[in-house]
Design goal:
This protein is of the alpha/beta class. The chain is built from 6 helices and 10 strands, in the order βββαβββαααβαβαββ. The strands form 2 sheets. Strands 6-7-8-3-9-10 form a 6-stranded mixed sheet, with helices on both faces. A 4-stranded antiparallel sheet has the order 2-1-4-5, covered by helices on one side. The structure holds adenosine-5'-diphosphate and magnesium ion (MG).
Length: about 230
């Protein structure tokens, strides 16, 4: 039971610009929600506040009954796939994937099975012993996504700048996001200005305009999909 609730969420930047205006939204456990709207409408700001990378000016964010506002980013049970995915170039793929789990003092055997199953799931199981600096940009982005999901977060936040400019990988990414949601019942919050991506993901569409919710569109399920 861990729905994510945004309650009157507002962000005013230090230059007095209000980029998110009093947004209230409840996202159910296991739901896919797409934040959709033109550049500058506040999508990234919302994700960054949920992730704890940006201070909240006013309002609350709850996960279940827990107030997330004052919980440091690293202690929030969520993963972020944003543009700056900062892998460690001198470590290999396995070590990069395992790092977060080691920091949580997980037993070696569990780390090993999680790293192997996640990398196989995302299709880079053969790269585990390769140093990051020797793998392709596309593979780096897959590893970044793998590192995000290997900790079995309750929620994954994906911003549109992740894998930006790599159309092929973005298609894969969308496919994986759906698969992750389906397989692990992970809640997905996905920000995009691209209507095709929003439609493909098929979740609830929250249309933003100038920092406000202008419309919420529920997915239409055909009988065949159910
Ligand atoms: P989106 O992700 O939808 O493109 P953002 O959340 O990045 O939108 O930005 C929303 C608005 O807030 C934009 O007008 C942007 O210029 C402004 N903004 C973003 N970051 C800052 C900042 N650090 N200081 C001031 N304004 C900002
Ligand atoms: Mg953005």
């Amino acid at each position: 039971m861990s729905s994510l609730t945004l309650q009157n969420l507002t962000k005013i930047y230090p230059n007095k610009y209000t980029s998110v205006k009093n947004i209230t939204l409840e996202i159910a456990d296991g739901e896919i929600v797409v934040l959709h709207g033109p550049s500058g409408c506040g999508k990234s700001t919302i994700l960054r506040m949920i992730g704890g990378l940006e201070d909240i000016t006013s309002g609350e964010i709850y996960l279940g009954n827990d107030l997330l506002n004052d919980i440091p980013p690293c202690d929030r049970p969520l993963a972020m796939a944003f543009q700056n995915y900062a892998l460690y170039p001198h470590l290999n793929v396995y070590e990069n994937m395992a790092l977060g789990l080691r920091l949580r003092n997980m037993p070696k055997s569990i780390i090993d099975s999680r790293v192997k199953s996640t990398s196989a799931f995302l299709g880079f199981g053969k790269l585990l012993d390769k140093k990051i600096r020797f793998i392709s940009e596309t593979d780096k982005q897959k590893v970044a996504l793998g590192r995000a999901i290997v900790c079995t977060p309750k929620i994954i936040l994906v911003d549109e700048d992740f894998a930006h400019g790599n159309a092929h990988l973005r298609k894969d990414l969308l496919k994986y996001i759906r698969k992750i949601n389906h397989t692990y019942h992970t809640t997905i919050l996905y920000a995009t200005r691209n209507a095709d991506e929003a439609a493909y993901l098929g979740g609830r569409l929250v249309v933003l305009n100038d920092g406000e919710v202008s419309e919420i569109i529920s997915p239409i399920h055909t009988v065949a999909e159910k």
